[in-house]
Every structure is written in structure tokens, then in C-alpha cells.
Backbone:
């Protein structure tokens, strides 16, 4: 799968309360959640994002709560992938499980500037910064996780197993 | 090759003699947990799986605690989804208002999690049960849905960081101060993907309530779990609660650790995490000029009887500062009842604090004590992120119940020694 879009850049330790504040968790409707994505970091974020955009962040992205509402809000607001120096553990699992592409690349996350246009080749783990004309190689997912991604998320993966 | 505590527990749950850090395994679950925020999403995913019912109606735990008692119509709709699911699938351990409590105070109290268990919960503070020597970790709703359906989950065996606590605890230094100190030292991603193993002579002397506090905040260092080896203290706690057999696992002498970190607790003071990350820790004296508007004593971190006791003993015969709204939230109905019997509730009310029904409420900015713009709270909870307890420009300072109670009295961040000598309180 190939993705491309312009980037929005955030700092280190972006927590799940920043991604979707708990005060908006009295619903699980993705469209409602998307309205408040990154609200406390940038009130206008949800209105500025155009479908296909990519989020860039520092270390430990998605730390804090286990709320799956966080990757759901990011996906629904139109962000197609997140590139970070590193991801918090639960957020990482949640993203794989719901099919939000995430890429761990300290170099790319540091060097890409907000507004740069990037192209991502998910199958080959390649990030190309078109603005800076620079390419980054991301290590592939372990086969076990790749299988979940190929099945379109954990539910489809498990569904296959419970039926099989 | 020897195994760490987490490797021992996980090996036993995938029928293997040995597992080692880095391996991907499929484990059998002793329990799955969800609350009123995460269950609705989990139920939506569960219904896509095409299974008839849950893997074991005794091992699915559902607790409405975050926005419950329902704070608004939308929250009421969410708990309704959960309640109807519980009825349909005859979930034994669904806890309605009147029986419920803050989930991580409630499940151990009911004997539903025991030493040696493997538990996943759609709540990041599920790691609390590590205090009992159980592997327990937070997951998202989709993982939880699959766990509820199959009784299994995939995990990567984590590396272990061993923490050794030595020395003599200073007055008013509690498990909360030890874990805040640890997070301050290693950072909010210092144990990312790892198991934290808490050991040493200080840990052996620590009460079970303080161990719950420490295990609870392992996630605040990015950890997968925070474990204590079950000992006599643990067994005394579970003895009358356990309704099934359990196994106590110990780390091998020759276990392989990613790191070993030693602390001499003699040098640790009562500790406060300033906004906006739990790693931003300071000795309590650094906060002496910081005026506050609210104090919260409660949550899955510090809402247990011992927490309420130390706060009450400091507040006894005192009044909370007129500018400080002081909110005490017992973790469960049983803790509430015990606090009443011991006269703690009376002390709180006489001091000018309020005592609420169990709820996560203000900890995550849900209800029962939301902060306005520019307001500051000292809270015994676990996170001080931007906007965590209300307005994005409000501030949360994380501290122990003793520091919180002392601060409520003075109206600024206060060392409990300023209120009463430690010997008078303990």
C-alpha cells in the first residue's frame, strides 16, 4: 500500500489525553471523536487536516491511557499514517489492531519538518520526503504482526482463527 | 537459563518450560476487564467476531467506574450498552452501582485476580495487579474483545528491569513517593515495553496497599507490567478472598535482566510530580510557594483504606484551607464502609472535605471535581498531562495522600511534617 500527504509535526511524549481528551469519551462514535482530535495541543487541528495527511512526532507517541479512541480519532480525522521516533506500547498495539499505519523511524521523525510532503510505501517500509528529497528505510514488522495487518486488523485475524 | 518473574508466569500460561524476552507467544487468560469507556468499543468489535458468547462468563469482568454514576445522557447510554451485554451473556462479575468500585481497587478486593494470574484489561492501569505477583497489562478495546471471545491473547515477552530498594524510609515517604521517584529517574518511557520487577528489603516491608500504588504507576514509565513477588504480605491479603487455586512464582536466581537499578531510599523525600508529566518530579519542599485550589484523594492509585487513614490522621482536628476544595473518594464500597466504621469519614467531613461515592471521576477530568482555567490541584492520582483534570490551562501535581492532606490544610504544596510529626500520625 502506498500513501502520501503533507505533514503535521508534534513533540515528544504526546499522550492520549492530548490526542483525545477524556471529556469527549462519553461516546465511541468515530466521527464525534475525530472532531476533538489533538484538541488540547491545537484547537484547530481537526479543521485543518485534509484526508491523506501524515502526523510526525517525537519519542513515546501515544503514552498514557489504553483508550482505543485515540488511534480511532486520528484515523477518522483523515490522518493516514503516524511516523514517530518511538511509540508507547498500548497505542502501538491499538493502531495495528484497528489498521492505522504507524512507522517507527527516529531519523525521519527528527528530520521531517511540518508541511513537508511525504510518500510512504508500507509494504517495503520506505518513507520518501518529497520536499527534502530524502529517503528513509523502516524495519519491517515481525511476520506475526504483518499477518494481522494483511488481514485488515485483529478482528478479521481472530475471526479467521475461530472459524478455522 | 534462569527466568525473570514475568517469564515464569508467561511460560506457565502458554504451556512452555521456558520463554525468553522478545518471543511472541499466545497466552491463556485468567481474566479480562473493561470499564464504561472501553467496553462499548470492545463490545462493538466482539459482535463482529461471530462467536456466540464469551470464553468464560466467570472470567469477564465489567466495571462501570469512569463516568459512573452516569454523569450525563451520553455516559448513561454507554453504561447501558455494557449492562445489556452483561445481562445477555450472563456475566457473573458485572458490578452495578452499589457494588461497583474503582476497577483496580475492586477486582483484587473481590479475590478475582490472584498471584500468578495472567490478566488483560482495557484500561492502562490494569498493571496494578502486579502488586499480587500477577502478570496484568493494559490493552485496547479490540485486543480485549478478542480476549473475551477466545480467552487468549498474543504478547511479546518483555525484557525485565529489576529495581532494588534499600535503606531506611524517611517519615511520610510511601510507595507513592518511591514510584514517583523511580519515574522521575528513568522517565515516562524509561521502562517502555518492559516488565518492572520491584525488589529489595524496603519492598519486603511495604504494605499491600502501597505495593498496589507502585504497580499501578508502572505504566507511567511506559512499562508493560510492574511486578512484586508474592510473599507473606500478599498471601495474608488473598487468603480469605481467593475462591480458586493459584500459584506463586518466583524469579530464578540466575534470571537475565536488561538492567538492574538500585535506590537507597534513605535519600528519598516526599515527592511531587509537577505538570505536565509524571517524570517531572521534585522534593515536596520545591512546591512550598505553589498555591492550590483543589485536592483529590482517591483513584486506583491511592483510594485504598491505608491511603484514607493517613490523610484522615493528618486532617484530624484540622480544617482544610478555605480556598481548597477537598474531595475524598474511597475506591470501593467496602473501603467506604471501613472508613466509616473507623471514623475516617467523620474526620473528613469535620475538616471541611467532601466524601464521594467510588468513581474515577476527576482523575481523568470526567466529573466530580473538574478544574477551571488556571486552577491547580494536588492529586493522589496518576497522571498530570495537559487537560487531564479539566481545562487545558489547569495544572495537576501528583503526590501521596499525606502530602495531599497537608496541602489541603495549608492551601499550598506542603510537607506533612509541617502539620504533625510522623510518629503522631502512624
Residues:
Amino acid at each position: 500500500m502506498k500513501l502520501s500527504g503533507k505533514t503535521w509535526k508534534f513533540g515528544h511524549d504526546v499522550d492520549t489525553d492530548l490526542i483525545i481528551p477524556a471529556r469527549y469519551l462519553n461516546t465511541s462514535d468515530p466521527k464525534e471523536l475525530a472532531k476533538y482530535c489533538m484538541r488540547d495541543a491545537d484547537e484547530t487541528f481537526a479543521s485543518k487536516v485534509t484526508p491523506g495527511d501524515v502526523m510526525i512526532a517525537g519519542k513515546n507517541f501515544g503514552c498514557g491511557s489504553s483508550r482505543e479512541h485515540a488511534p480511532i480519532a486520528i484515523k477518522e480525522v483523515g490522518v493516514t499514517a503516524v511516523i514517530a521516533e518511538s511509540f508507547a506500547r498500548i497505542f502501538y498495539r491499538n493502531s495495528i489492531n484497528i489498521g492505522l499505519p504507524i512507522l517507527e523511524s527516529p531519523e525521519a521523525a527528527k528530520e521531517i519538518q511540518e508541511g513537508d510532503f511525504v510518500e510512504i510505501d508500507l509494504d517495503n517500509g520506505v518513507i520518501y520526503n518529497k520536499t527534502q528529497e530524502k529517503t528513509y528505510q523502516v524495519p519491517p514488522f515481525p511476520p506475526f504482526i504483518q499477518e494481522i495487518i494483511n488481514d485488515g486488523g485483529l478482528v478479521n485475524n481472530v475471526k479467521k482463527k475461530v472459524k478455522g | 537459563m534462569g527466568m525473570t518473574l514475568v517469564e515464569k508466569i508467561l511460560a506457565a500460561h502458554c504451556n512452555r518450560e521456558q520463554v525468553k524476552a522478545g518471543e511472541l507467544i499466545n497466552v491463556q487468560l485468567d481474566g479480562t476487564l473493561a470499564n464504561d469507556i472501553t467496553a462499548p468499543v470492545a463490545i462493538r468489535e466482539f459482535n463482529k467476531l461471530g462467536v456466540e458468547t464469551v470464553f468464560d462468563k466467570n472470567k469477564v469482568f465489567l466495571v462501570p467506574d469512569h463516568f459512573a454514576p452516569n454523569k450525563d445522557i451520553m455516559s448513561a447510554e454507554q453504561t447501558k450498552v455494557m449492562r445489556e451485554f452483561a445481562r445477555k451473556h450472563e456475566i457473573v462479575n458485572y458490578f452495578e452501582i452499589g457494588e461497583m468500585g474503582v476497577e483496580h481497587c475492586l477486582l483484587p478486593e473481590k479475590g478475582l485476580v490472584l498471584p500468578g494470574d495472567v490478566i488483560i484489561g482495557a484500561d492502562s492501569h490494569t498493571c496494578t495487579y502486579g502488586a499480587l505477583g500477577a502478570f496484568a497489562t493494559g490493552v485496547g478495546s479490540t485486543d480485549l474483545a478478542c480476549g473475551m471471545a477466545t480467552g487468549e491473547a498474543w504478547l511479546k515477552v518483555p525484557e525485565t528491569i529489576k529495581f532494588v530498594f534499600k535503606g531506611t524510609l524517611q517519615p511520610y515517604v510511601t510507595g507513592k513517593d518511591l514510584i514517583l521517584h523511580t519515574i522521575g529517574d528513568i522517565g515516562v518511557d524509561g521502562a517502555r515495553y518492559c516488565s518492572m520487577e520491584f525488589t529489595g528489603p524496603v519492598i519486603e516491608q511495604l504494605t499491600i496497599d502501597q505495593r498496589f500504588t507502585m504497580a499501578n504507576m508502572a505504566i507511567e514509565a511506559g512499562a508493560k507490567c510492574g511486578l512484586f513477588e508474592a510473599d507473606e504480605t500478599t498471601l495474608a491479603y488473598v487468603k480469605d478472598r481467593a475462591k480458586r487455586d493459584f500459584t506463586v512464582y518466583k524469579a530464578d536466581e540466575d534470571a537475565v535482566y536488561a538492567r538492574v537499578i538500585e535506590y537507597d531510599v534513605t535519600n528519598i523525600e516526599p515527592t511531587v510530580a509537577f505538570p505536565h508529566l509524571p517524570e517531572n518530579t521534585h522534593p515536596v519542599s520545591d512546591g512550598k510557594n505553589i498555591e492550590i485550589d483543589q485536592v483529590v484523594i482517591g483513584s486506583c492509585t491511592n483510594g485504598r483504606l491505608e491511603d484514607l487513614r493517613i490523610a484522615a490522621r493528618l486532617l484530624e482536628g484540622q480544617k482544610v484551607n478555605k480556598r481548597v476544595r477537598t474531595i475524598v473518594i474511597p475506591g470501593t464500597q467496602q473501603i467506604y464502609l471501613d472508613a466509616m466504621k473507623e471514623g475516617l469519614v467523620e474526620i473528613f467531613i469535620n475538616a471541611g472535605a467532601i466524601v464521594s461515592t467510588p468513581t474515577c471521576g476527576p482523575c481523568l477530568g470526567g466529573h466530580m471535581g473538574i478544574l477551571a482555567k488556571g486552577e491547580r490541584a494536588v492529586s493522589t492520582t496518576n497522571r498530570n498531562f495537559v487537560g487531564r483534570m479539566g481545562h487545558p490551562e489547569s495544572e495537576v501535581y501528583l503526590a501521596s495522600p499525606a502530602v495531599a492532606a497537608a496541602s489541603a490544610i495549608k492551601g499550598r504544596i506542603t510537607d506533612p511534617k509541617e502539620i504533625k510529626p510522623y510518629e503522631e500520625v502512624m
